[in-house]
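Structure tokens please, single chain.
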Amino acid sequence: MKLTFNLIQELVNLVQTYSEEKQGQVSLESFILWLNREELFKKEADSRRYFRRGSASSIAELPEAASHTAADPDHANPADVHLTLLLHQLSKHFKLYLKKVLLDSDLVSMDGHMFLSVLSETESLRKMELIRANFSETPSGIEVIKRLLRKGFIEEFDDPDDGRSKRVRITSKGKAEYQKTLPPIRKVIEVLAGRLTHEKKIQLVSLMDGLNDFHADLHEQAKSLTLDQLLETCRSEQSATQE
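Here you go.
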């Protein structure tokens, strides 16, 4: 009975921590992903072993990233290097598979698809709202909007609340094109997930969700911060996580 009570108490504490981090935006599914990620982080901190690229050997007892870079600022943490390489390579694989979808579509890039995806879920958006929603740079985002306008996939109109601004909305032609690309893009998504089991996919999603949340929060600040300031922000977050 005491063991059960202790387990419930621990679970309550975890829910409270999770709720504070998410600032009230909570759900059961999100909590499960968060809890899974927390447990994986604990295991990683305990072992502190990282795998070399292309082999099953490990780099034993590496110091934590923050202390490693502070003591040796001229050399990157091997785990950070490995992670960056993997993310870069996966993006290349994704672009290769995506080309097969775009061959049969009037959309030039995945950005066009994502812009239509956002607009399909709302009545209309200001142009800058649409660009920010997709984490695009302003010049490239404007070019995507121009292409979609030329294709007739979206239309623009004066913002009734601000005469200086334009709003955009998806057209029936845009909805049809968006729906046409969904089935092949779903195939690309399945191919990209490879041979991972469902359990491993959940683990990976929980880890990547935390990484993406960090960069999403940092995105607007990053435009005005120097690289050293970004690094300091990252290290501060790492220190707070380890406390």
